[in-house]
Design goal:
Length: 512
């Protein structure tokens, strides 16, 4: 048997371990799991730093997990270990990362909300793929309530309409509301606070998807799984549904309990009982923005998603679906800024045709192709602000927007490509570019060079070239168009924009 995969997640309220193997039919067989409480989020929200006591506890937990993993023949170097936004926000983040590495051997990777969304999408898509749950046709919201943030994905017609990391979480609310050590609080005050927080984000969300038209609501998390076990009915082994009225009744019922009563009644650890009431109240408030009649609850998490992400290259269908959601998210962002969608689609088509023709020359993977598609869709998005210098405005929009499936490095690459798709200034003249790793710099140069050619071929924004072929002959890249097509404008554009391509690849671009 091959070595199983393992992943450790350091969240706002605990440290969680998963060990699993992926079977020949692409299913996850859970071999081992563990969870230990850690008040990391409470520390960061209270003082801005991770306390000495909490950092000591983290090291102890990871040493324990290290021994546990040894039984599976897994070393710290072989195990993934990632932390969420609460860890990143700690002022003493770096020394603790170093201490953990030195004392335990685990190298912690800090992921952002968008990366969490990516992993959760993989987990949810896998959990429901063989079940009668259809987000291909119905408008759908997928929500994960955490300690620091709530991660939301919104889908329309099976495509990603929006993705958000919302600053609404149980530990965050606990901190702002100033709950007592006994956990007592005014339901009315907390209810009002959550409603205000949601209303502040509602406008932004509904610019991408009309929540009142959403018919399907998928909720993920151990708190909502508990609600499903209490009030729901199983669809399959790891999937439940709860009628809206039953869920609402349960949420209201548990608001009357103390934390100790929640522990005793549901037989859960104290750290889970602490978050139960707030977490389910947040789910309830978001669900009430939709017309969903039932709550769909898959028992999965981002740890399952992480293991899938490591093996998804072997699953062509899942990877293709995931890449489609990235470009769907980019198209929706362009639509939000009233971009020229026909031009964007034409440039995307030409860019990918160039990429595929030169695949052997590029030495890049399929993810680079997806980044090129994303940049092609978004390259003119800055026109929304102002046509002059729209490449610079567009780069800012990309860098500061949430695009499903793209982590920080990916967004930086797309933003840099957007910035240099026009103009005489080259990436090598940018300090931001020069500070990136060499692999990222080369990707930016190659993809920008391709995008500049594609953009030049639709200079008039009239999609003139929809049927053409490309050949590589000696030191030339020749674009063959249909006879009778006027190419004067495009040849002028190529004379202005082909310099980078010729410099990077050594091919002269010829338009026939």
């Amino acid at each position: 048997m091959s070595t199983p995969e393992s992943v450790i997640e350091i969240g706002s309220t605990g440290v969680r371990l998963l060990v699993a193997e992926v079977t020949s039919d692409k299913k996850q067989n859970i071999l081992d799991r563990a969870e230990m409480p850690l008040p990391l989020g409470k520390d960061v929200f209270t003082s801005g730093v991770i306390s000495q006591e909490t950092s000591n506890l983290l090291v102890q937990i990871l040493k324990r997990y290290k021994e546990q993993l040894m039984g599976w023949g897994i070393t710290p170097e072989q195990s993934a270990c990632f932390a969420s936004i609460a860890f990143r926000d700690a002022k003493n983040c770096d020394p603790i990362l170093d201490r953990v590495l030195v004392q335990t051997g685990f190298k912690i990777k800090i992921i952002d909300g968008i990366e969490e969304n990516r992993l959760m999408y993989l987990a949810v898509a896998d959990a429901i793929k063989d079940q009668p749950v259809d987000f291909k046709n119905d408008d759908t919201v997928i929500l994960v309530v955490g300690g620091s943030t709530s991660e939301m994905m919104m889908m329309s017609d099976g495509k990603m309409a929006g993705v958000h990391s919302l600053k609404i979480g149980t530990v965050r609310i606990d901190h702002h509301m100033g709950m007592s050590d006994e956990g007592a609080y005014s339901y009315e005050n907390v209810n009002h606070y959550i409603e205000e927080s949601i209303n502040n984000t509602k406008g932004s969300l509904e610019s991408e998807l009309n929540l009142s038209q959403v018919k399907q609501f998928i909720a993920v998390g151990h708190d909502v799984t508990l609600a499903a076990l209490q009030k729901g009915k199983p669809i399959s082994t790891f999937l439940w549904e709860i009628k809206k009225e039953d869920f609402e009744s349960f949420v209201m019922e548990i608001q009357k309990y103390t934390i100790d009563e929640c522990r005793a009644k549901f037989k859960i650890p104290y750290h889970e009982a602490e978050t139960l009431q707030l977490s389910l109240l947040i789910y309830s408030k978001f669900m009430n923005l939709t017309q969903a009649k039932t709550l769909i609850v898959p028992e999965t998490n981002i740890r399952n998603g992480y293991i899938l992400s490591k093996t998804s290259s072997e699953n062509d269908e899942l990877q293709k679906e995931f890449d489609m959601q990235i470009t769907a998210s980019a198209r929706n962002l362009l639509r939000k800024y009233h971009g020229d969608e026909n031009h964007a689609e034409c440039v995307r088509m030409i860019s990918t045709k160039l990429y595929d023709t030169m695949k052997n020359e590029l030495a890049m993977d399929d993810h680079a192709r997806t980044l090129l598609e994303t940049a092609a869709i978004l390259h003119d998005i800055g026109v929304f602000i102002r046509y002059d210098n729209h490449n610079i405005h567009g780069s800012y929009i990309v860098q500061n927007s949430e695009i499903f499936g793209l982590n920080r490095i990916d967004k930086t690459i797309v933003a840099e490509i957007t910035r240099f798709h026009k103009g005489s200034i080259m990436p090598q003249d940018s300090e931001t570019f020069l500070m990136l790793p060499r692999s990222s710099r080369m990707m930016i140069l190659k993809l920008t060079a391709i995008l500049r050619i594609a953009d030049a071929l639709d200079r008039g924004h009239i999609q003139k070239f929809t049927d053409f072929s490309i050949t590589l002959e000696q030191n030339s890249l020749i674009i063959h168009t249909k006879k009778g097509i006027d190419t004067v404008l495009e040849k002028i554009a190529l004379s202005e924009k082909a310099g980078m391509f010729e410099s990077v690849f050594g091919y002269k671009v010829i338009l026939l």
